[in-house]
């Protein structure tokens, strides 16, 4: 029938395209360093959880190191220290932003290294 969802092939969840919604990177974290870490800190505060995909894989294409990464590693420019300081400032902002909005028990804890 026309309204019978069992006849609709698109109703099969295995055929649906997965979508992930997450907050944007904070614009202050530009170039190299801490942008992905900052984004996942925000995701933790939102209480999102993660799943392990035992049959999943990622392909990473090697690429030349960027000029910004060289600056990141160069003590003369101190970009690493600046981003570390900015990250700590950002974490304080998250605490202030989500105080009273998010139950601290719902904030996803940081991963801990475990002995195998």
Judged by helices, strands and strand pairing, the structural class is mainly alpha
Largest sheet: none
How many helices? The count is 3
Give the end-to-end Cα distance, rounded to a whole number of Å.
55 Å
Strand content: under 5%
Secondary-structure element pattern, one letter each: HHH
Helix residue percentage: 25-40%
> Over all CA atoms, what is the radius of gyration?
20 Å
Number of beta-strand segments? 0
What is the arithmetic mean of pLDDT? 77
Shape: globular
Uncertain segments: none
What does this structure look like?
It is a single chain. This protein has helices spanning 35-45, 67-73, 79-98. By secondary structure, the chain is mostly helical. Helix 1 runs parallel beside helix 3. The model has no long low-confidence stretch (mean pLDDT 77).
What tags apply to this protein structure?
116 residues, mainly alpha, 3 helices, 0% strand, globular, glycoprotein
In terms of topology, how is this protein built?
Blueprint: H1 35-45, H2 67-73, H3 79-98
Helix pairs in contact: 1-3
Short description:
This protein is mainly alpha-helical. The chain is built from three helices and no strands.
